[in-house]
Design a protein that fits this description.
Blueprint lengths: L2 E3 L18 H5 L7 E7 L4 H9 L6 H11 L1 H6 L2 E4 L4 H7 L3 H13 L8 E3 L11 H8 L3 E3 L4 H4 L3 E9 L3 H12 L4 E10 L7
Parallel strand pairs: 1-2, 2-7, 3-6, 6-7
Antiparallel strand pairs: 4-5
């Protein structure tokens, strides 16, 4: 499953060798989602931008981020019938006051016309922060944490879902979401994120 940084994306310049790179984690653990794309590499040049958006109430860039994602994920959007954000647990949403993935999904829907269903997925248990966890620990942490809402079953049946999040780190969270979506009747799941953590040793 090739993971691509958007050609010419804001922070992808100079990273042409990473385009279409096959993720080592995807080779070791073939994912439930079909394709994944990101606008830029998460690193020193982009960390402040992402963290300011995620934790610092810096929401003014949402429309620009969505425009970048629309370009990076144009191929995925062509096939998508619905956009679904990775959900937060209600306790974390109460503390943070917004779900950055839902903001991106809604802005992406407004820019492209592909409908967004922000509450299609439910995070049914609060999982510990994954910042210092290994890939295996992350997979265990989010296993079974997501389910689709029963009232959305009709919208999910046979759908080609574009799953949206802010950062793709190891893929554990989007994998757990993809499994829940497919279990709920989705035909396929692709993933589009603003940033991607790229570890040189994980590239094959």
């Amino acid at each position: 499953m090739p993971f691509e940084l958007a050609p010419g994306g804001p922070a992808a310049r100079g990273a042409a060798s990473l385009e279409a790179a096959r993720c080592g984690a995807c080779i070791a653990h073939p994912p439930s989602f079909a394709r994944a794309r990101a606008v830029f590499r998460y690193g020193e040049g982009s960390r402040g931008l992402v963290l300011g958006f995620k934790h610092g109430d810096r929401l003014h860039g949402t429309r620009a981020f969505a425009a970048w994602m629309a370009r990076a994920g144009a191929e995925l959007l062509e096939d998508a019938s619905v956009i679904v954000p990775v959900p937060l647990h209600w306790t974390r949403l109460f503390t943070r006051r917004y779900n950055q993935a839902a903001l991106l999904a809604n802005a992406l829907a407004a820019a492209t016309g592909v409908p967004s269903i922000p509450d299609l997925l439910l995070r049914r248990r609060r999982t510990p922060s994954q910042g210092r966890m290994s890939a295996a620990e992350r997979r265990r942490n989010v296993r079974g944490a997501f389910v689709h809402r029963p009232r959305a079953a009709r919208q999910l049946e046979g759908a080609s879902v574009l799953l949206v999040d802010d950062v793709f780190t190891t893929g554990a969270t989007v994998e757990a979401c993809a499994k829940a979506l497919i279990a709920g009747g989705a035909e396929s799941v692709d993933v589009l994120t603003l940033a991607r953590v790229v570890r040189p040793q994980s590239l094959g």
